[in-house]
Amino acid sequence: MTTEQDHKDQHNGLDGVQATLERLGVAGNVDWLAVVLFARNLVSSMDLFSEEQKAQLQAKIFEQMGKRPLNNKRFQHIVQIIQHFLLDNPKMADLRSQLVNERQGYASLYEEMGKVFADIQQSTEARESHIQRMGEDTEKGITAAESRAEVVSRLRGMVTEMVSQARAEARTWQERATQLEHTANFDSLLSELYSRRALDAQLSVVLERCRKTNTPVSLLFIDVDRFKDVNDTFGHQTGDGVLRVLAAILSAHSMQFKGYAARFGGEELLILCEGLSEAEAMVRAEEIRQDVARCPFVPHLTGAENTAPLHITVSIGVAQMRPGQSTADLIMAADQAMYAGKTQGRNRVVGHSSLAAYRPL
User: Fold this and answer.
1) How do the domains of the chain map onto residue ranges?
2) Set 51, 63, 267, 274: catalytic member
3) Which of 83, 157, 164, 269 is 20 to 30 A from 13 (CA-CA)?
4) pTM of the model as a whole
5) Which fold has domain 196-301+308-354?
């Protein structure tokens, strides 16, 4: 229920906005009212962006509003600033990439399921036809006054054939089910890594289990250094090749300590480490970092000969689940540690607990 104080606070807030509009000389203008409300209220509530990013956007908006005249041209310029921030922000680019991957995954799964349903229908029709043919052949044998032994022998042969076909069909369906499960749970590009959808489900299961058993769980957040330069210089096909090589390395390492390797989005990859503390997970992360740095990648470029190998590096952030944290908190902590590694020079492993500004989320 809204209290009298709530109404008073809301009224004061609107009065403040109106006072700002009057001071700027645009009182009563709906467009400028929307800009002020967005800058004062909506920006601060965007959890997707950091406080520094939101402060920068607010500063740009108010800087433009401090200029004269506040006409339609100025308004459109501010709208472009807001659109650029929302649409071209790296976080939004990651979300778009994640959405594309999800769509591709769903499309592949939908296509495979469609084929399975069509095959089921075809198999059912073939089985019904076979049974009908068995009945007709048996009836013909009886009508032709064949001996009972001959009729039974022929019927047994047809039943044996049908059982053999059913067994072969069962093996095929098992293979198809396994393929469907793989399509549903693994990334469409990096087939050795789990999808973001599967990761989210696994995170909830693992964290709940670890809370009950008081078992540590850590997360490795892995990002390719200067990946945009690779795409811009050699093309997205080469970039995809780099990601596939990295996926193979992560998959091989994660199997050694029963980690859960998944693609988070774009060139960001995660490994969920059940039973490992942050210190133990950092040892594993350092092994991964060194293997990636030692693995040369030769891009296959059309018309290019003797292309020099690319030496790819990764920055890895490591965080351990703390009491009271959510899965989002754990991912954010590992992400913060990874970005700290970027600012410290890239190609390094950083633990979240070692950050100077570390505090429980």
Assistant:
1) 4-88, 93-185, 196-301+308-354
2) 267
3) 83
4) 0.55
5) Alpha-Beta Plaits (3.30.70)
